[in-house]
Model the fold of this input.
Amino acid sequence: MTRGAIPQASSKIQSRSIRSASLRAFSHHSRSLLDIESLSDADIHSLLKEAGRFRRVSIQKAPLKGRHIALLFYESSTRTRCSFELAAKSLGASTTLVSASASSIEKGESLVDTGATLAAMGADCIVIRHPSSGAPHVLARHLRIPIVNAGDGMHEHPSQALLDCYTISEHRQSLKGLRLLLVGDIYHSRVARSNALLLSRLGAQVTFCGPPALLPEVAETIAPGVRVMRDFDRALPQADVIMMLRVQKERLAGLQISADEYVRDYQLTPERLALAPAKALVMHPGPMVRGMELTSEVADSARSLVLEQVRNGVAVRRAILLRALGGRA
Ligand code: ASP
Done:
Protein backbone atom coordinates (compact mmCIF):
# COMPACT_ATOMS: atom_id res chain seq x y z
CA MET A 1 0.00 0.00 0.00
CA THR A 2 1.45 3.40 -0.93
CA ARG A 3 1.80 6.00 1.71
CA GLY A 4 -0.85 8.10 -0.03
CA ALA A 5 -3.44 5.31 -0.04
CA ILE A 6 -4.31 5.54 3.60
CA PRO A 7 -5.14 9.22 3.70
CA GLN A 8 -7.08 8.79 0.48
CA ALA A 9 -9.14 5.94 1.87
CA SER A 10 -9.61 7.66 5.19
CA SER A 11 -10.60 10.93 3.55
CA LYS A 12 -13.22 8.99 1.57
CA ILE A 13 -14.50 7.42 4.74
CA GLN A 14 -14.32 10.78 6.42
CA SER A 15 -16.25 12.57 3.69
CA ARG A 16 -18.80 9.72 3.64
CA SER A 17 -19.21 9.97 7.38
CA ILE A 18 -19.40 13.76 7.23
CA ARG A 19 -22.03 13.41 4.52
CA SER A 20 -24.04 10.85 6.43
CA ALA A 21 -23.68 12.87 9.63
CA SER A 22 -24.98 15.97 7.89
CA LEU A 23 -27.79 13.95 6.32
CA ARG A 24 -28.60 12.62 9.76
CA ALA A 25 -28.52 16.15 11.13
CA PHE A 26 -30.68 17.29 8.24
CA SER A 27 -33.23 14.57 8.84
CA HIS A 28 -33.38 15.45 12.53
CA HIS A 29 -33.79 19.10 11.67
CA SER A 30 -36.47 18.40 9.12
CA ARG A 31 -38.44 16.49 11.75
CA SER A 32 -38.03 19.22 14.35
CA LEU A 33 -40.74 21.82 14.78
CA LEU A 34 -38.86 25.04 15.45
CA ASP A 35 -41.14 27.69 13.97
CA ILE A 36 -43.88 28.22 11.42
CA GLU A 37 -41.47 29.82 8.99
CA SER A 38 -39.47 26.63 8.53
CA LEU A 39 -42.50 24.42 7.87
CA SER A 40 -43.23 23.73 4.21
CA ASP A 41 -46.80 23.99 2.90
CA ALA A 42 -46.77 20.18 2.59
CA ASP A 43 -45.72 19.85 6.26
CA ILE A 44 -48.55 22.13 7.36
CA HIS A 45 -51.14 20.24 5.36
CA SER A 46 -49.99 16.84 6.48
CA LEU A 47 -49.85 17.89 10.16
CA LEU A 48 -53.41 19.27 9.98
CA LYS A 49 -54.62 16.19 8.12
CA GLU A 50 -52.98 13.83 10.61
CA ALA A 51 -54.49 15.81 13.51
CA GLY A 52 -57.91 15.38 11.88
CA ARG A 53 -57.36 11.65 11.70
CA PHE A 54 -56.45 11.57 15.38
CA ARG A 55 -59.64 13.48 16.20
CA ARG A 56 -61.83 11.03 14.26
CA VAL A 57 -60.19 7.65 14.81
CA SER A 58 -59.23 6.24 18.16
CA ILE A 59 -55.64 5.04 18.44
CA GLN A 60 -55.38 1.26 18.21
CA LYS A 61 -51.62 0.83 18.08
CA ALA A 62 -48.83 2.41 20.05
CA PRO A 63 -46.69 3.79 17.21
CA LEU A 64 -44.21 5.42 19.57
CA LYS A 65 -43.83 2.43 21.90
CA GLY A 66 -40.31 2.29 23.30
CA ARG A 67 -39.59 5.93 22.41
CA HIS A 68 -38.69 8.49 25.06
CA ILE A 69 -39.74 12.11 24.96
CA ALA A 70 -38.23 14.70 27.29
CA LEU A 71 -40.34 17.72 28.21
CA LEU A 72 -37.89 20.49 29.08
CA PHE A 73 -39.84 23.39 30.54
CA TYR A 74 -38.01 26.53 31.65
CA GLU A 75 -41.32 28.44 31.90
CA SER A 76 -44.62 27.51 33.47
CA SER A 77 -47.29 25.85 31.38
CA THR A 78 -50.55 23.98 31.86
CA ARG A 79 -52.09 23.26 28.47
CA THR A 80 -48.98 22.88 26.34
CA ARG A 81 -47.08 20.68 28.78
CA CYS A 82 -50.00 18.45 29.68
CA SER A 83 -51.14 18.02 26.11
CA PHE A 84 -47.67 17.11 24.84
CA GLU A 85 -47.45 14.62 27.70
CA LEU A 86 -50.89 13.13 27.04
CA ALA A 87 -50.21 13.04 23.31
CA ALA A 88 -46.88 11.25 23.82
CA LYS A 89 -48.33 8.70 26.25
CA SER A 90 -51.37 8.00 24.10
CA LEU A 91 -48.98 7.03 21.28
CA GLY A 92 -47.10 4.66 23.59
CA ALA A 93 -44.03 6.83 24.30
CA SER A 94 -42.67 7.43 27.77
CA THR A 95 -42.08 10.97 28.98
CA THR A 96 -39.89 12.68 31.49
CA LEU A 97 -40.45 16.22 32.69
CA VAL A 98 -37.56 18.54 33.52
CA SER A 99 -38.64 21.86 34.88
CA ALA A 100 -36.32 24.74 35.70
CA SER A 101 -37.20 24.89 39.37
CA ALA A 102 -36.47 21.27 40.29
CA SER A 103 -33.38 20.41 38.30
CA SER A 104 -29.74 21.33 37.81
CA ILE A 105 -30.91 24.26 35.68
CA GLU A 106 -31.26 26.03 39.03
CA LYS A 107 -27.61 25.21 39.71
CA GLY A 108 -26.54 27.02 36.56
CA GLU A 109 -26.36 24.20 34.02
CA SER A 110 -26.42 25.50 30.43
CA LEU A 111 -29.25 24.79 28.02
CA VAL A 112 -27.03 22.75 25.72
CA ASP A 113 -25.57 20.70 28.60
CA THR A 114 -29.06 19.94 29.90
CA GLY A 115 -30.23 18.94 26.41
CA ALA A 116 -27.13 16.79 25.81
CA THR A 117 -27.69 15.08 29.17
CA LEU A 118 -31.26 14.19 28.23
CA ALA A 119 -30.13 12.91 24.83
CA ALA A 120 -27.38 10.81 26.45
CA MET A 121 -30.00 9.21 28.68
CA GLY A 122 -31.86 8.09 25.59
CA ALA A 123 -34.38 10.87 24.90
CA ASP A 124 -35.46 10.50 21.26
CA CYS A 125 -36.96 13.99 21.13
CA ILE A 126 -37.00 17.11 23.31
CA VAL A 127 -40.03 19.35 23.64
CA ILE A 128 -38.76 22.66 24.96
CA ARG A 129 -40.29 25.84 26.37
CA HIS A 130 -37.86 28.63 27.16
CA PRO A 131 -38.06 32.36 27.97
CA SER A 132 -35.39 33.19 25.35
CA SER A 133 -36.32 33.45 21.69
CA GLY A 134 -34.30 30.98 19.65
CA ALA A 135 -33.53 28.51 22.48
CA PRO A 136 -35.04 25.54 20.54
CA HIS A 137 -32.89 26.47 17.52
CA VAL A 138 -29.77 26.41 19.70
CA LEU A 139 -30.64 22.91 20.94
CA ALA A 140 -31.39 21.74 17.41
CA ARG A 141 -27.96 22.96 16.26
CA HIS A 142 -26.18 21.04 19.01
CA LEU A 143 -28.16 17.82 19.30
CA ARG A 144 -28.92 15.06 16.83
CA ILE A 145 -32.49 14.48 17.93
CA PRO A 146 -35.63 16.33 16.82
CA ILE A 147 -36.54 19.39 18.86
CA VAL A 148 -40.08 20.67 19.25
CA ASN A 149 -40.64 24.30 20.18
CA ALA A 150 -43.32 24.58 22.88
CA GLY A 151 -42.94 28.38 23.05
CA ASP A 152 -39.70 30.40 22.94
CA GLY A 153 -39.75 33.84 24.49
CA MET A 154 -41.55 36.39 22.34
CA HIS A 155 -40.72 34.49 19.17
CA GLU A 156 -43.03 31.59 18.28
CA HIS A 157 -45.45 28.99 19.58
CA PRO A 158 -45.93 26.85 16.47
CA SER A 159 -47.97 24.02 18.02
CA GLN A 160 -50.47 26.59 19.34
CA ALA A 161 -50.87 28.15 15.89
CA LEU A 162 -51.38 24.73 14.32
CA LEU A 163 -54.06 23.82 16.84
CA ASP A 164 -55.73 27.20 16.41
CA CYS A 165 -55.71 26.77 12.66
CA TYR A 166 -57.10 23.24 13.01
CA THR A 167 -59.84 24.50 15.36
CA ILE A 168 -60.88 27.27 12.95
CA SER A 169 -60.93 24.81 10.06
CA GLU A 170 -63.47 22.67 11.96
CA HIS A 171 -65.83 25.66 11.83
CA ARG A 172 -65.06 27.21 8.47
CA GLN A 173 -64.95 25.63 5.02
CA SER A 174 -61.91 27.62 4.02
CA LEU A 175 -59.31 29.85 5.59
CA LYS A 176 -59.02 31.90 2.40
CA GLY A 177 -60.31 35.39 3.14
CA LEU A 178 -61.06 34.55 6.79
CA ARG A 179 -60.80 37.75 8.84
CA LEU A 180 -58.75 37.03 11.95
CA LEU A 181 -58.59 39.73 14.64
CA LEU A 182 -55.86 39.26 17.26
CA VAL A 183 -56.41 41.53 20.24
CA GLY A 184 -54.30 42.72 23.15
CA ASP A 185 -50.67 42.17 24.03
CA ILE A 186 -49.40 41.42 20.54
CA TYR A 187 -45.90 42.67 21.32
CA HIS A 188 -45.08 39.94 23.84
CA SER A 189 -47.15 37.23 22.22
CA ARG A 190 -45.47 34.30 20.49
CA VAL A 191 -49.02 33.01 19.84
CA ALA A 192 -49.86 36.16 17.84
CA ARG A 193 -46.70 35.86 15.82
CA SER A 194 -47.11 32.17 14.95
CA ASN A 195 -50.79 32.60 14.16
CA ALA A 196 -50.18 35.62 11.95
CA LEU A 197 -47.48 33.75 10.05
CA LEU A 198 -49.50 30.56 9.66
CA LEU A 199 -52.95 31.95 8.96
CA SER A 200 -51.83 34.67 6.58
CA ARG A 201 -49.90 32.02 4.67
CA LEU A 202 -53.10 30.00 4.37
CA GLY A 203 -54.98 32.99 2.95
CA ALA A 204 -56.51 34.63 6.04
CA GLN A 205 -56.55 38.41 6.44
CA VAL A 206 -54.89 39.16 9.79
CA THR A 207 -55.54 42.30 11.83
CA PHE A 208 -53.81 43.14 15.10
CA CYS A 209 -55.61 45.36 17.56
CA GLY A 210 -54.19 46.86 20.74
CA PRO A 211 -52.72 49.98 22.37
CA PRO A 212 -49.37 51.33 21.05
CA ALA A 213 -47.49 50.11 24.16
CA LEU A 214 -48.50 46.51 23.43
CA LEU A 215 -48.68 46.75 19.67
CA PRO A 216 -45.98 48.71 17.90
CA GLU A 217 -46.73 49.77 14.33
CA VAL A 218 -43.86 47.61 13.09
CA ALA A 219 -45.98 44.53 13.87
CA GLU A 220 -47.47 45.03 10.40
CA THR A 221 -44.27 43.67 8.93
CA ILE A 222 -44.62 40.24 10.57
CA ALA A 223 -46.36 38.88 7.50
CA PRO A 224 -47.60 40.34 4.22
CA GLY A 225 -51.06 41.89 4.47
CA VAL A 226 -51.14 42.18 8.28
CA ARG A 227 -52.93 45.36 9.47
CA VAL A 228 -52.83 47.29 12.73
CA MET A 229 -56.01 48.84 14.19
CA ARG A 230 -56.24 50.68 17.50
CA ASP A 231 -60.01 50.96 17.86
CA PHE A 232 -61.43 47.62 19.00
CA ASP A 233 -65.05 48.67 18.48
CA ARG A 234 -64.32 49.56 14.86
CA ALA A 235 -62.36 46.37 14.24
CA LEU A 236 -65.01 44.00 15.61
CA PRO A 237 -67.60 44.30 12.80
CA GLN A 238 -64.92 43.08 10.37
CA ALA A 239 -63.92 39.95 12.30
CA ASP A 240 -64.79 36.31 11.65
CA VAL A 241 -62.53 35.08 14.45
CA ILE A 242 -61.57 37.16 17.48
CA MET A 243 -58.49 35.84 19.23
CA MET A 244 -58.03 37.43 22.64
CA LEU A 245 -54.59 37.51 24.23
CA ARG A 246 -53.41 37.80 27.81
CA VAL A 247 -51.36 40.81 28.93
CA GLN A 248 -48.05 39.05 29.65
CA LYS A 249 -47.17 40.56 33.02
CA GLU A 250 -44.01 38.41 33.22
CA ARG A 251 -42.60 40.12 30.11
CA LEU A 252 -43.69 43.73 30.68
CA ALA A 253 -40.25 44.62 32.13
CA GLY A 254 -41.16 47.96 33.66
CA LEU A 255 -43.77 48.88 31.06
CA GLN A 256 -46.67 50.53 32.87
CA ILE A 257 -50.10 49.45 31.71
CA SER A 258 -53.21 50.85 33.34
CA ALA A 259 -55.53 47.91 33.89
CA ASP A 260 -58.56 50.24 34.00
CA GLU A 261 -57.77 51.76 30.62
CA TYR A 262 -56.99 48.37 29.16
CA VAL A 263 -60.31 46.96 30.32
CA ARG A 264 -62.14 50.04 29.06
CA ASP A 265 -60.63 49.90 25.59
CA TYR A 266 -59.82 46.24 24.93
CA GLN A 267 -61.84 43.92 27.13
CA LEU A 268 -64.19 41.67 25.16
CA THR A 269 -67.59 42.05 26.82
CA PRO A 270 -70.98 40.74 25.63
CA GLU A 271 -71.81 44.31 24.46
CA ARG A 272 -68.65 44.46 22.38
CA LEU A 273 -69.15 40.96 21.02
CA ALA A 274 -72.55 42.14 19.75
CA LEU A 275 -70.65 44.48 17.38
CA ALA A 276 -69.07 41.49 15.60
CA PRO A 277 -70.86 39.43 12.95
CA ALA A 278 -73.34 36.97 14.52
CA LYS A 279 -71.20 33.97 13.55
CA ALA A 280 -67.90 35.40 14.76
CA LEU A 281 -65.98 32.98 16.95
CA VAL A 282 -64.01 33.78 20.10
CA MET A 283 -60.67 32.11 20.80
CA HIS A 284 -58.02 32.39 23.49
CA PRO A 285 -54.81 30.37 23.83
CA GLY A 286 -55.05 30.43 27.64
CA PRO A 287 -54.41 31.09 30.38
CA MET A 288 -57.41 33.44 30.39
CA VAL A 289 -57.48 36.25 32.90
CA ARG A 290 -61.22 36.67 33.38
CA GLY A 291 -62.15 40.26 34.06
CA MET A 292 -59.09 41.55 32.18
CA GLU A 293 -59.02 40.69 28.46
CA LEU A 294 -62.48 39.15 28.48
CA THR A 295 -65.45 38.68 30.79
CA SER A 296 -66.69 35.35 32.10
CA GLU A 297 -69.90 35.70 30.05
CA VAL A 298 -67.84 35.80 26.87
CA ALA A 299 -65.37 33.11 27.99
CA ASP A 300 -68.22 30.71 28.75
CA SER A 301 -70.50 31.68 25.87
CA ALA A 302 -71.50 29.36 23.03
CA ARG A 303 -69.28 31.44 20.73
CA SER A 304 -66.15 30.62 22.72
CA LEU A 305 -63.91 27.86 21.31
CA VAL A 306 -61.49 27.89 24.23
CA LEU A 307 -62.04 24.29 25.35
CA GLU A 308 -62.20 23.06 21.75
CA GLN A 309 -58.77 24.58 21.27
CA VAL A 310 -57.52 22.66 24.30
CA ARG A 311 -59.09 19.40 23.12
CA ASN A 312 -57.67 19.77 19.61
CA GLY A 313 -54.27 20.54 21.09
CA VAL A 314 -53.80 16.91 22.04
CA ALA A 315 -54.56 15.68 18.49
CA VAL A 316 -52.30 18.28 16.88
CA ARG A 317 -49.46 17.45 19.26
CA ARG A 318 -49.84 13.75 18.48
CA ALA A 319 -49.31 14.63 14.83
CA ILE A 320 -46.26 16.76 15.72
CA LEU A 321 -44.66 14.00 17.81
CA LEU A 322 -45.36 11.33 15.22
CA ARG A 323 -43.73 13.51 12.57
CA ALA A 324 -40.76 14.16 14.88
CA LEU A 325 -40.17 10.50 15.61
CA GLY A 326 -41.04 9.12 12.21
CA GLY A 327 -43.73 6.78 13.54
CA ARG A 328 -46.83 5.61 11.68
CA ALA A 329 -50.22 5.59 13.41
N1 ASP B 1 -49.96 30.04 26.80
C1 ASP B 1 -49.54 30.97 25.79
C2 ASP B 1 -48.04 31.02 25.71
O1 ASP B 1 -47.36 30.29 26.40
C3 ASP B 1 -50.16 32.31 25.93
C4 ASP B 1 -49.93 33.03 27.22
O2 ASP B 1 -49.10 32.60 28.04
O3 ASP B 1 -50.60 34.04 27.42
O4 ASP B 1 -47.51 31.80 24.94
User: Anything to note?
Assistant: Residues 267 and 293 are 4 Å apart (CA to CA).
